[in-house]
Amino acid sequence: TESLLTITDLSIDSLRDGTRRRIVEGFNLSVRAGEIYGLVGESGSGKSISMMASVGLAAQGLDVRSGTVNFGTRRFAASDQKSLRGNLSHGVSLLFQNAKGALNPFITVGKQVERVLRRRRRSDIQGELKELFRVVGLNYADLGRKYPHQVSGGQAQRVAMACALATEPALLIADEPTTALDVTTEREMLRFLASICRQRNMAVVLIAHNLSLVSEYCSSLSILHAGQVVETGNLAPIFAEPLHPYTQGLIAAVPDVDSPRELVPLIGSVWGGSSELDRCRFSHRCPHAMPRCERRIPPAVKRDGREVHCVLYEQEVSA
Ligand code: SF4
Ligand code: MG
């Protein structure tokens, strides 16, 4: 099937404190209907910023310098945040971590979902509401009249999911939606997200820093480091044989697929001390770094059904 959302060459600068900093560079992503796409990286690598900017929700102080976004059959300049926002708001829903904190504490969970539903539906709101609760694995009769503080974290996250689904989005951006949940609830949520994604033929971008989770639920992924995609493609070949040294480090750090836990961060910070950005931004952490890596940003090399950005895979280059 065709891609629903395609982000091409997105670059974002930060303009805080009067200084321009290049924070995301050449970001690409393409997700199809019915697919869960994993976007993985340590915190500070630019995952959320990239996805928010691509739906027109770049935070203040950010300058979207370049990039295009294709959504369905339409095409937008990423710098035109206003038109992105206006055109994508009906087709895209967002889901964040800590739903409990995001829900209005003074309104019952049933009413919160109902309010979202009312924006789209005119008839049989009550029927639809009960159905939505059922879809997210909650019983409306038991929970509908409860306030957010009266439900568990997992239930609150499902209520947030019901709100997200109430608009019947073509795309759901789930930004570390299970980070605040215990491991069992987390798995339940993701299994269930996967089944909804199939049933509704909805596209999902799952932002995560836990690679073992992504490995279970996503068919494709992009790995981001310091604002650059380092490797992207189908999950199976990347896991079978990670090419980028950063991906290799991440996969080696995945403890055991049956006991998922936080990713062990590699040594060194994401960005490193260097202010020079026209380099491989992993060079300060890379065991294979050589002078060539510092001369420019490594271009994408296509190999074994994926793209990798590392000089180790370049054809002979003239230095
Ligand atoms: Fe390491 Fe160089 Fe490849 Fe970057 S380009 S990952 S520093 S070998
Ligand atoms: Mg984030």
From TrEMBL:
The keyword Cytoplasm does not apply. It is a peripheral membrane protein. InterPro entries: AAA+_ATPase (IPR003593), ABC_Ni/Peptide_Import (IPR050388), ABC_transporter-like_ATP-bd (IPR003439), ABC_transporter-like_CS (IPR017871), Oligopep_ABC_C (IPR013563), P-loop_NTPase (IPR027417). GO terms for biological process: peptide transport. Its main location: membrane. One of its GO terms (cellular component) is plasma membrane. Its EC number is 7.2.2.11. It comes from the Bacteria. NCBIfam families: oligo_HPY. The complex is composed of two ATP-binding proteins (NikD and NikE), two transmembrane proteins (NikB and NikC) and a solute-binding protein (NikA). This is Nickel import system ATP-binding protein NikD. It comes from Devosia pacifica. The gene is appD.
